[in-house]
């Protein structure tokens, strides 16, 4: 499956994407993606090969003008409620602030709602992650609440869990359709 927008192609990962993936996954900029960190090109190659098998819910965000993978977007049907999806999005910092995340996420949401049976899409984002909150709001998602000290991805210097406050945003298919 491929999704095309004005400037981007969303397509499944390929083994050749390893170097570009390492470009943004060597040092993830948010705590919630620390467990996705890649430490070498070899590790990136293995990860790219693993990812290449997922054809419908995990996409490389590719710049059409030069074929570079500048980030990724994914969301899977939830096991208990397959009409519900929660996306993850990430761009290489060198390509942020250019509208690519919105362009990719808008097309991805449209695909989930129109082709993958999505009824509700919700996103978690930490209270300090203003870019991700801004993206949710630009996509028309409602802020549904804040879970205080909801989750811990990293430790404090003293070894105790560092808990983070998590905001939840969501949009329903009927809201998406009305907003278009
Ligand atoms: C979250 C994230 C994907 C958002 O990316 P982003 O680059 O800030 O978002 P966009 O690509 O939509 O760019 C937004 C800005 O680009 C600018 N821009 C420049 N050229 C543009 C163009 N041609 N079209 C649209 N916007 C453009 C605009 O100023 C826009 O801001 P605005 O909406 O206030 O007008 C990115 O910050 C990221 O990868 N963060 C790390 C991973 C992360 O936090 N993931 C979420 C975990 S919860």
**Taking Cα atoms only, what radius of gyration do you get, to the nearest Å?**
16 Å
Strand percent estimate: 25-35%
For the record, what CATH class applies? Alpha Beta
Question: Uncertain segments of ≥5 residues (pLDDT<50)?
Answer: none
What ions, cofactors and ligands are bound? coenzyme A
Overall residue-averaged pLDDT value: 97
Structural shape: globular
Order of helices and strands: EEHHEEEEHEHEEH
Tell me the CATH superfamily: Gcn5-related N-acetyltransferase (GNAT)
Structural class: alpha+beta
| DSSP summary: helix tally | 5
How are the strands of the biggest sheet laid out side by side?
Answer: 1-2-3-4-6
Name given to the CATH architecture: 3-Layer(aba) Sandwich
Question: Roughly what percent helix?
Answer: 25-40%
CATH T-level topology: Aminopeptidase
Biggest beta-sheet profile: 5 strands, antiparallel
Distance between the termini: 23 Å
Tally of separate domains: 1
What do you see in this structure?
With 180 residues, this protein is an alpha+beta fold. It has a single domain (3-179), classed as Aminopeptidase (3-Layer(aba) Sandwich), CATH 3.40.630.30. 28% of the residues lie in helices and 32% in strands. The protein has 5 helices and 9 strands. It has helices at 18-25, 41-51, 100-115, 130-138, 173-179; strands spanning 3-4, 8-11, 58-63, 69-74, 84-85, 88-91, 120-126, 142-155, 161-172. The chain has a 5-stranded antiparallel beta sheet with strand order 1-2-3-4-6, with helices on both faces. Strands 5-7-9-8 form a 4-stranded mixed beta sheet. The longest helix has 16 residues, at 100-115. Coenzyme A is lined by residues 29-30, 32, 89-91, 96-102, 125, 129, 131-132, 135, 138.
